[in-house]
Amino acid sequence: MYLTIFYSTSLVFFCAETTKKDLYRKNGKLIEEKVGGQFKDNMTPAKASSIRGLRIEGSIPTNNEKRERIRQEKLKEKSSYSFIRLFSLFEESERENRSLKDDRIRFSLHIAPLIGKKAISELTTQDIEKIRRKMEKEGKSPQTVKHVLTLIKRLVNYALKNGYIESVPATLHFDMPAVDNKVTENLTAKQVAKLLQVLDEEEDIVMASLIRLALFTGMRRSALLNLQWTDLDFERNSIMLRGDVAKKKKTEYIPMNEQAKAILLSVPKTTSPYVFPGRDDDKPRVNITAVLKRVKEKAGLPESFRPLHGLRHSFASWLANSGQVSMYELQKLLTHSSPLMTQRYAHLHDEALKRASNLTTNLFTTKEKE
């Protein structure tokens, strides 16, 4: 049994009843909460009246005020988490994210050294600008700077979403660098010939096949590394890009052209389900940086050229420049989700159309002479 007390402006009423809630007013607001058990807490009307009086005048907190104080203390403790601790929590929640490896590198190289020990609530725009200026001074590309600042922004949003901070300061600003996403990496015919020569001489024939496949299909790095033998249909000449490893999380198919088919048939089969297996047969190849760097240097490719990613661009650029492939067909071959992503190659396609149009000059001139 609990003691219920009703407060009005001039009278206090007491009554014993089997209820867990009590009502009283404080600052004109009706508050409902327990005051104590009659037997358990040895509660009497006089004792209850004294407690209520102290709560009303603010000498002791109400139950709601106690709960709010505890909530604020917990929030304060969370908001004092350093960015290093926050990132460890973020890692745990993002462990299935394929980009986590890149996030770790960005955090350890560019974020932890400057704001790793800083509390989340202490972050300022000046901190963001300090990281940005340092990276620019080191010669990092606008895209790299943008990736790092975006990661900080994601961490702040993660802290907000999970209750580590109550709000993001209105003064906190992320000035993202302008990135020209339309820049493409396109190899010349001479560079492609040299690259193919180097691949013929490459000691790692499996990796050489992977690089050739990148050039002749334009497949993404993740699609190449995760390619399994069951994804290949040599009868229908198609390659399945599985949704579980695809960028868009959607299964798609691309044609297996003659060059790609020849390359895939030349790859030696093992007990692994993967076309390009790693050290463990049940896992795909992961670390291919050393091979890509070796091939790039032997072929004399530009320092700025990014193997695999650059080969995908070359594949698209050559097709667009041929004038024999529409932008819609190119979009499908590259598995772009939007035609806007394929638009970067439009100028090459336009040049091919201009060349085709100029043929009319020779045609009409020839007719006149006849």
Automatic annotation (TrEMBL):
PROSITE patterns from the UniProt entry: CB, TYR_RECOMBINASE
Cited InterPro entries: CB (IPR044068), DNA_brk_join_enz (IPR011010), Integrase-like_cat_sf (IPR013762), Integrase_catalytic (IPR002104), Integrase_recombinase_N (IPR010998), Phage_int_M (IPR053876), Phage_Integrase (IPR050808)
Classification via Pfam families: Phage_int_M (PF22022), Phage_integrase (PF00589)
Residue ranges of every copy of the Tyr recombinase domain listed in the record: 182-358
Keyword Chaperone set for record: no
Key words, A-Z: DNA integration, DNA recombination, DNA-binding
Domain Core-binding (CB): 81-160
Gene3D superfamilies: 1.10.150.130, Intergrase catalytic core
Similarity remark: Belongs to the 'phage' integrase family.
Name this polypeptide is given: Site-specific integrase
Organism of this sequence: Taurinivorans muris
